[in-house]
């Protein structure tokens, strides 16, 4: 099994992917991680309250030697399972052929304290830290779309990407996309479909080094702009026609990346890393931190976490109310903070957002 350092140069791979996207665009095709894996998200006609809903959760993979972290991870898993049970409706059950059921966005630091060593270690850790924890019936066939965190980079990233022991685990590359689109039946509606697109990015790769510190990632613009990966992100954002366009990575958004988020009127940026739940609005863009998958350790913040010990973030794009609802939940699934985001005005790169 090759290590991450022996894989083909990423710059070459993403330059090739960039050119592939351009060719596909001229051919009228859409290239995304779903289709590369043989899936895809075709339109599905719905009859009741059509919506696209998913969970974002980071920093969940508790260390096997920490009973406190393992208890915390299990409690949050129970809360996510409760949310999934409540949000299974007829616009796509988990694992249906159209793949429009709920899904989970994993925001990195998947296996504490230092990732996995190799594929054998991945198989063992996956059984202990994933299968044994997210074992509720509600998780059956619910896909997890994965990005890497700094803890994962202390091990072998390729082992996580090359793991094929579970159909739920979807980690096709350092950078990839998740696309969901559903038809909205009925008359007198503002739109006849809703589309959510998530651009999943590797913030460690963008920093230029797996060992680089977070303060440099958030302060040094030159690390980003001339890379093939940065150009790939810009291409995805500039060509998106999604009603809701989300960028997801492990670290908070780098200043250079913030410029792209604003330029293309991204709906939201979602990250983990900080073991807390945060919501900030920066230059008109909503930034959400959901890093409480096994513990919540917040300093001063604008969200009243009450007695929460962990939690997760849910998204619900509902065409009948024409908004994306984003809600923070505690470890039991109780709502502790919520905001609404209006759909983008596709073609004009204009978004109107409101909070509740």
Question: What features would you describe in this structure?
Answer:
It is a single chain. The protein is of the alpha/beta class. It has one domain: Metallo-dependent phosphatases (Purple Acid Phosphatase, chain A, domain 2), CATH 3.60.21.10. The protein has nine helices and 14 strands. The longest helix is centred in the N-terminal third of the chain and has 20 residues. It starts with 9 loop residues before the first helix and ends with a strand.
Structure summarized in a few sentences:
It contains nine helices and 14 strands. It has 356 residues and is α/β, with parallel strands linked by helices. The chain has one domain: Purple Acid Phosphatase, chain A, domain 2.
Q: What is the CATH class name?
A: Alpha Beta
Low-confidence stretches: 1-9, 11-47, 90-97, 214-219, 347-356
Question: What fraction of the residues are assigned to beta strands by DSSP?
Answer: 15-25%
The helix content, as a percent range, equals 10-25%
Multimerization status: single chain
What is the overall shape?
globular
Count the strands? 14
Outline the fold blueprint:
Elements: H1 10-26, H2 33-36, E1 51-57, H3 67-86, E2 103-106, H4 119-131, E3 144-146, H5 157-161, E4 169-170, E5 176-183, E6 193-200, H6 203-207, H7 214-217, H8 228-238, E7 244-248, H9 255-263, E8 268-271, E9 277-282, E10 285-290, E11 311-318, E12 323-330, E13 335-345, E14 350-355
Parallel strand pairs: 1-2, 2-3, 3-4, 6-7, 7-8, 8-10
Antiparallel strand pairs: 1-11, 5-6, 9-10, 11-12, 12-13, 13-14
